[in-house]
Amino acid sequence: MTTKLVTRPLKTGELTAISNVTSINVTGHQVSILEVQPEPGKKDTSAVHLTFDVEHPQKLPSPFADVEELGLIMDRNDAVKIGLSLLAMAMEDRSSGEIAAIKEKLSGMIADLK
Question: CB-hemisphere CA count at 13 Å for 107?
C-alpha cells in the first residue's frame, strides 16, 4: 500500500460552524487529500481533509474556549457529493458563460492534481 499527501491552501471568507451548543466563526485554511493506493481487493481509504482557523476573540463555552482549529474529514465519495451540492446551489443563477468558466477552472484544478 502506498500513500500520497496533497495539500492546497483554502482561503475563504468568514464561515460559521454551528452546533446545538454554540457557533464558531472560522476561515478556510487548507484542503488536503491523503490518497491511499490500496492493494488489489482492498477498500480505498483515501480521505479529504478540510482545515479551518477559528476566529478570535469569541465568547465560546468551555471546552471550545481554547479551540484554534477545526477540521472535517470525509471519504472521496462524500467530498464529491458535498462539493457538487454546494457548487450546484451556488451556481444556479449564473449565466451559461460563467458556468462554462467554472467547468474550465475545475478541469484545470483536477489536472493540476495528477
Answer: 6
Omega into 9 within 30° of 0, i.e. cis? no
Whole-structure pTM value? 0.80
Q: Exposed, middle or buried, 26 (CB in 10 Å: 0-12/13-18/19+)?
A: buried
Residue 113, C-alpha cell as written in the block: 492534481
What are the sequence ranges of the domains in the chain? 2-113
| 52 CB neighbour count, 10 Å cutoff | 20
Place of cell 450546484: 88
Task: Encode the chain (114 residues) as per-residue pLDDT tens digits.
Answer: 788 899 999 999 999 988 887 888 999 999 999 988 878 888 888 899 999 999 876 677 767 777 889 999 999 999 999 999 999 999 999 999 999 999 999 999 999 887
Question: If DSSP codes are grouped into helix, strand and coil, which group holds residue 59?
Answer: coil
**C-alpha separations of 57 from 4, 54, 87, 108 in Å:** 36, 9, 31, 38
